[in-house]
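Bumping my old thread because nobody answered last time. Still need a sequence for this structure:
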């Protein structure tokens, strides 16, 4: 998978500024760890929540990262809202929580962000479309500030002002 332009600079930049970075993905641990290692980002990510993968007798097994029934909007193996809430509950209260994503399964956490939070939906992807739909309805479900992006430099500009000239 080719990285989204700016994503390496974004993750490294956030870590350098003392942000905690939680990676929530319905991929699997082998793929994610390989990706992070290849891009020299293992140290920059505080925690990864994903499906656990392992090889046994030459076969690849994937175990669901959770088995949840609490959220009816999300598949049983992963509700990113639950994962995010669990992560936050183990830490001192954050002054600011921001969330970037593109998939359908990013919509649930987007609706649970506080008003002072920010959600970054990738423009033209399912999350962006779902947010647009709810924001134009009579009962919008997203309270956080919405900042659509085409590449991660938009997010860098918003979160790390003064760092927009990070070398590619
Ligand atoms: Zn959910």
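Sorry it took so long. Here it is:
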């Amino acid at each position: 998978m080719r990285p989204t332009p700016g994503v390496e600079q974004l993750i490294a930049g956030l870590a350098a500024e003392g942000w905690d970075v939680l990676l929530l993905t319905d991929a699997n641990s082998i793929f994610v760890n390989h990706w992070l290692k290849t891009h020299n980002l293992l140290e920059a990510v505080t925690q990864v929540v994903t499906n656990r993968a392992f090889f046994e007798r030459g076969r690849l097994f994937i175990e669901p990262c959770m088995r949840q029934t609490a959220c009816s909007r999300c598949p049983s193996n992963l509700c990113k809202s639950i994962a995010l809430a669990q992560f936050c509950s183990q830490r001192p209260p954050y002054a600011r929580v921001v969330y970037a994503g593109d998939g359908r399964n990013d919509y649930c956490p987007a609706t649970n962000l506080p008003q002072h939070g920010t959600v970054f939906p990738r423009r033209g992807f399912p999350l962006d479309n779902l947010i647009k739909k709810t924001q134009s309805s009579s009962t919008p479900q997203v309270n956080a500030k919405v900042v659509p992006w085409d590449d991660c430099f938009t997010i860098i500009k918003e979160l790390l002002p003064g760092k927009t000239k990070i070398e590619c």
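Strands lie at 22-28, 47-56, 59-63, 98-101, 118-121, 145-146. Let me know if any region looks off to you.
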